[in-house]
Amino acid sequence: MAKNLVIVESPAKAKTIEKFLGKKYTVKASLGHVRDLPRSQFGVDVEHGFIPKYITIRGKGEVLRELRESAKKAERVLLATDPDREGEAIAWHLAHLLGIPEQERARIEFHEITKEAIQAAIKRPRAIDRDLVDAQQARRVLDRLVGYKLSPLLWKKVRRGLSAGRVQSAALKMIVDREREIERFRPEEYWTLHARLTTGEGKALEARFHGFGDEKGDDIPSAAAAQDILRRLEGQKYIVEAVRRRERHRQPAPPFTTSSLQQEAARKLGFGVRKTMSLAQQLYEGLELGPEGSVGLVTYIRTDSTRIAASAARDAAAYIKERYGEDYLPAAARAAELKEGAQDAHEAIRPTAVARDPETVRPFLGEDLYRLYRLVWERFLASQMADAILDVVTIDIRAGHGLFRASGSTIRFPGFMQLYIEGEDDARRDREQGEEAEKDVLLPEVREGEELRLEKLDPRQHFTQPPPRFTEAALVRALEENGIGRPSTYAPIIETILYRRYVERDGRSLVPTELGRLVVDLLSDYFPRVVDPAFTAKLENQLDAVEAGTVGWQEVVAEFYGPFSRDVEQAEEKIGQVEMPEEETDVVCEKCGRKMVVKYGRFGKFLACPGFPECKNTKPYLEPTGVKCPQCGQGELVERRSKKGRRFYGCSRYPECDFTTWQKPVNRECPDCGSFLVEKRSKSEGTYYECARGCGYRVQADVED
């Protein structure tokens, strides 16, 4: 008896789905795309409507032979690739190669890999959506036009091995612009004044100075101004002028989109974008859960929507009521807010079954898979819970004409905060807004008219901080906010600019290399539209219109290619040979006596003799720190990289001395024990130095001993 054939992309997904469909179905995997543009040819006929030339991807011959043989024997073939543009394009290519008519109802679509979803999808086959295919095809052709025109130009004018992409170039420019903004930044001094007070019952209270009379403002421009304020406050009584209480409701964050998952996994778990998506793909495709077999744990992971199915909302409400009580249910079901530009093609990322809580599945998952699943599960469940209710108290204290203010909040009802609180970036207070921070502290009870005892007036010096460098999470957020790329492209964008050495990681920060700066400057001068975030976002919207069926894909490509091809011609004529400045070091080549220079390779920086090819001597690149090795006392601690690219510090005399540390050494001595200091960062304290030996000494990075 002939079986029905279902084709998916991955073997993991095939295994999970086959279990749900039973003996009448055979499920096989295409292992991703089976056809693409040729790697060694341009592959686009620009003279005849930008028609792409597709060929079978090298290495996929055996896979296709197996699929063709299975299709011939099958009673029916169903194409069950991912429910997005790429998945639709894979289905279209498979249909072409297997001889399935495009209008045949052979395409099935599902957003979670569960038995119910798969069986329901089998009953609702449809024809291939040509608009989705055209949207993917337009992107592929545009990327090929840009890549195959710009990359050879960079090879010729700068150096071999470079590339420029339609979306990656705009992202790289954002990183370079931010770095230059940081370099131009000049810190400005400002002061704040804090009064340490005591109530009649002996309870402590700290309040911040907010100005004299109508001269409101809590930032003081200089030490002289701070001293003047202290003189004006001498001998004043501190009287409670007003006590204001209000109730504030705090709503939970919505379920994850691709972007918010990547950001939160970076903030809370320390995962890079690539790692997050790799783990999420495994959770989506299915994992073995003991007797339950292979099960997809989360819904489709490439989405820009926070919408959830009504059935999922009902299941969450029932779970919350049973586990936390009816008080933890919101008065009305939460409606998803659709962001401007969002396609809303899929649900938010959520667990396929809320009853499958993280602790239940933990024995079957690796630690990283468990942590990511727990993040998705808690975020989803919290999004369906009641608001947290906070009591916010603001106390105004008058000292003569001066005003001090203390603000705090306490949790009256935790609501969703009982389970989950969204992470925060290392964002600094916006001085221009001047908003009073509501600290999560309980202020002592005071009465209007009560006099408080002044213990100390504490002036504190501060300096304005430059904008922070982009982390992977911050870049994803910026790309999303600027409409650059789409959920499926964020990880490849970051991966590409790192692979090309346009950007390096410094801890979690992304720092442009000299090569990255040079490429951005070159593209900005001759191809301003390619690196312009606004133009890139506009083009993305046009491609979305192709997907919606309101504009033809060839029309969009032609509108872009005309001006772009003229830019290429002019650049070929105007750009001379660009010399990449070589970074000379003090390390002398022992073979020929020249000073060695810094080069970049597959594994990062290395030292090479400038006499190449006559002299081919190379050495590892060792970034000095100026800190003497504490183990041998002879070598210097230098920066190194692990096999996975992680930065660490070790003795320059390795292998004679094997001392290593993950913490960045600082060329300053601990005043308490004489060891060296290491640099650390935290959200609450910023950058600070700590004793490497752990004696307890700690000092802020901008404070001199």
Counted by DSSP, the helix tally is 18
By secondary-structure content and strand pairing, the structural class works out as alpha+beta
Total number of distinct structural domains = 5
Largest sheet data: 6 strands, antiparallel, barrel
Stretches with pLDDT under 50, minimum 5 residues? 426-436
Give the class-level CATH name of the largest domain. Mainly Alpha
| Name given to the CATH architecture of the largest domain | Orthogonal Bundle
Q: Strand sequence of the main sheet, in spatial order? A: 8-9-15-14-11-16
Helix content: 25-40%
The CATH superfamily of the largest domain is identified as Topoisomerase I, domain 2
Total strand count, please? 30
Characterise the protein shown here:
There is one protein chain. Helix 8 (258-269) runs antiparallel to helix 13 (472-481) and helix 9 (273-285) packs across helix 12 (367-383). Residues 426-436 have low confidence and may be disordered. It is built from 18 helices and 30 strands. The protein is globular, with a radius of gyration of 30 Å. The protein folds into five domains: 4-128, Rossmann fold (3-Layer(aba) Sandwich); 152-184 and 469-574, Topoisomerase I, domain 2; 189-251 and 388-463, Topoisomerase I, domain 3, CATH 2.70.20.10; 258-383, Topoisomerase I, domain 4, CATH 1.10.290; 582-621, no CATH class. 34% of the residues lie in helices and 24% in strands. A hairpin with a 5-residue loop joins strand 4 and strand 5 (51-52). The strands form nine sheets. Strands 8-9-15-14-11-16 form a six-stranded antiparallel barrel. The termini are far apart. With 705 residues, the chain is of the alpha+beta class.
